[in-house]
Each structure stands twice: as structure tokens, then as C-alpha cells.
Amino acid sequence: MTFEEMARARYSVKGFKSTPVEEEKLNKILEIAGVAPTARNKQSFRIYVLKSEEALQKANSLTRCVYGAPVCLMFTYNIEETYPYIEDQGLSSGDEDCSIAATHVMFAAMEQGLGTCWVNAFTPSKAKALFDLPENEYVVLLMPVGYADAEPKPTHTTKKPLEEIVRFL
Ligand SMILES: Cc1cc2nc3c(=O)[nH]c(=O)nc-3n(C[C@H](O)[C@H](O)[C@H](O)COP(=O)(O)O)c2cc1C
User: Fold this and answer.
1) Pocket of ligand 1 contains residue 103 by CB under 6 Å
2) Fewest CB within 10 angstroms: 32, 49, 89, 146, which?
């Protein structure tokens, strides 16, 4: 598939088979996350691979949106490796770093025949406490990864027309 074909075919998977994700595939996905661009190349993001029964149970206690996936990635950033240049909009470059790495994961997983879903329906401070993360780390998102079940079908049906989201100045 070309990138365009992948971007058009991708959807948020909200039901996974219990089939495990092969280690080789998971490692490939993580490698591709690792080459994502980051602010001043500080590589502030961290990825926790939640796949033990205990870790998945904790993830499920944070959100209903793991959707039965056998693996759930938790993206965090180390605030000491971030830049506050956009703090006036309430963001850190760590949020950006995590978002780009997670986007790499979405497409790397797809290339391996796997589905993902970006999840922010949880309380980051609860995740931090539950996984006993270092004080300087902040949780940005969870991303279940696995083989998509046939149901539920993709939920996105319409996207805004470009005229609504693009301005040429
Ligand atoms: C920043 C962000 C947060 C999201 N949070 C959740 C979530 O917590 N739970 C969930 O089921 N889907 C979540 N999604 C997936 C969206 O529901 C989904 O991307 C959107 O409905 C469009 O569907 P599509 O990804 O299939 O195109 C999130 C997506 C993004 C980009």
C-alpha cells in the first residue's frame, strides 16, 4: 500500500481479537516509533508496553477503551527533555513528541496488519500513580494494538471538506 492508501484505509479499531501480537511485529513497530522526529531531538517520549495480565488489568481499570487488545502502549514524556516554548497554549513539546511517535505507531502497526486506537479517555495522573512512573514523567495517551475484530465496523464515515479545515493565506 502507498502512504496515501494507508492513510485513507486507516481507522480506529474499537474491538480486538485476543490473538497475541508477534514479538517481531511489536519490535518493528517500536523501532519505527523510535525514529520519529522530536523537539530539538531530545527524544522526550517513553513507551510502556503493557502486555502482562497485571499491566493490562491496570490499563482496563483506567479506561474502557483498551477494547480487548493484547497489547496497550502507554506514551509518556520526560518533562526534563522538553521545551516550554508553546506553554502559552497549555502544551509541552512532550505532547508533540508523543503524538508524532504515536502516529508512527499507527501506521507501522497497520503495515504489519495490526490495528490501533488513540485513547485519551482516562486520567493521566491516575495512570502515573498506578504504574508508579517517575515524578518527571507525564502520560499523554494509551494506544491498544492488536488484530482487529470484524466488529465494530469503523465509526468514521464523514470527514470535513477541505474548505472547512484549510486556509490558503
Ligand atoms: C486525540 C485523540 C483522542 C482519541 N481518544 C479516543 C478515546 O479515548 N477512545 C476511543 O475510543 N477513541 C478515541 N479516539 C479515536 C477517535 O474516536 C477516532 O479517531 C475518530 O472517531 C475518527 O475515526 P477514525 O480514527 O476511524 O478515522 C481518539 C482519537 C484522537 C486523535
Assistant:
1) no
2) 89
